[in-house]
Amino acid sequence: QVQLVESGGGFVQAGGSLRLSCAASGRTFSTYIMGWFRQAPGKNREFVASITWHGARTVYADSVKGRFTISGDNAKNTVSLQMNSPKPEDTAVYYCAAGGGWASYDFWGQGTQVTVSS
Fold first, then answer.
1. I need a surface site. Which of 55, 71, 92, 115 has the fewest CB within 10 A?
2. Residue 115 in 3-state DSSP?
3. pLDDT confidence of 105, banded at 50, 70, 90?
4. How do residues 1-28 score in pLDDT, each as one tens digit?
């Protein structure tokens, strides 16, 4: 099992910045990819960004490309999401996820609320 704990959520004004972090523990050696997802009220959970532990290959949703940056620290088993120039439509609960294969997520955190005010 892998445990994921998110932190860093809160309120931010549009155009500001916010950094989310995810700490992984447990059988982290079994994970290949880490990702961030989000779910806004009344909407389905959607992909935001992902990064592989080895090679640090990153992928972003078009809606956040150029504004958000995902990064990972293998030594600390942490993954971060730097949110620059957030928009009100970025308001959602953000979830950290981990998986053993490409685009395959088996473990999820509890989520952290991000609210962007206009």
1. 55
2. strand
3. very high
4. 999 999 999 999 999 999 999 999 988 8
Average of per-residue pLDDT across 84-111: 94
What does 28-79 look like in DSSP terms, one character per residue? GGG--EEEEEEE-TTS--EEEEEEETTT--EEE-TTTTTTEEEEEETTTTEE
pLDDT at 29: 77
CB 95 within 8 A of CB 79: no
At 41, list the tokens.
């009220």
Greatest C-alpha distance within the chain: 41
Helix (H, G, I), strand (E, B) or coil at 92: strand
**Which residues pair with residue 36 across a beta bridge?**
49, 96
Residue from 86, 33, 76, 83 nearest 58 by CA: 33
